[in-house]
């Protein structure tokens, strides 16, 4: 049995300058993939990440785009193809950040913002990148969902609504393009330890961890490992899956 080998593959990670995205980019590069670092506003972090990945010996480029704007996504695709060729792996990781509160207090504009960055991002990426995958009868579409989609806790309404809508898009897409040997899956992180936590010494949270069967929070590397697995040939017969990476904090039922 072979391990994870992404040599010769090109991966696009949206929101790659974010806390989880940057670890996904580094990890896919470590497994041999050429990397496209998407960002919306953090050009400095994108440049830093490019230099880091290129130092690993992997081809890498950055591209700026508003993933809620379809024409911007099409323009991004054209830039990527011109410099790096066709994309084999698309990881939809970007999401608009906002302050969580109750439904009664949540500003109305936060709901369409989550719809645009979760649902419409997924649609835009599919329309832009799937047609060439169909021609090649090969490809990986990977969405970053959340355990919140199953929790439905107070304060999560806009985020949960957006991610549950994203789940619907991915499940339907998996059925629509499966015959072309393109897999469509989702990774659903729990409350994950990231570089920000390490810098702030905030890795531990007993109130959260006591309800997790593994009694701890996962790490950004745990999420990136799941993405790498789904991107690889080892997961070639897995599609339509929603995979929690949260130590068992939520468990999809049958």
Notable features of this structure?
single chain, alpha/beta, Rossmann fold, seven-stranded parallel sheet, SDR_fam, 3-oxoacyl-[acyl-carrier protein] reductase, NAD(P)-bd_dom_sf, oxidoreductase activity
What can you tell me about this protein's structure?
The protein is 44% helix and 15% strand. The protein is α/β, with parallel strands linked by helices and 254 residues long. It starts with 9 loop residues before the first strand and ends in a 9-residue tail after the last strand. It holds the Pfam family adh_short_C2. GO terms for molecular function: oxidoreductase activity. It comes from Paenibacillus pini JCM 16418.
TL;DR?
This protein is an alpha/beta fold and 254 residues long. The protein has nine helices and seven strands. It has a single domain, classed as Rossmann fold (3-Layer(aba) Sandwich), CATH 3.40.50.
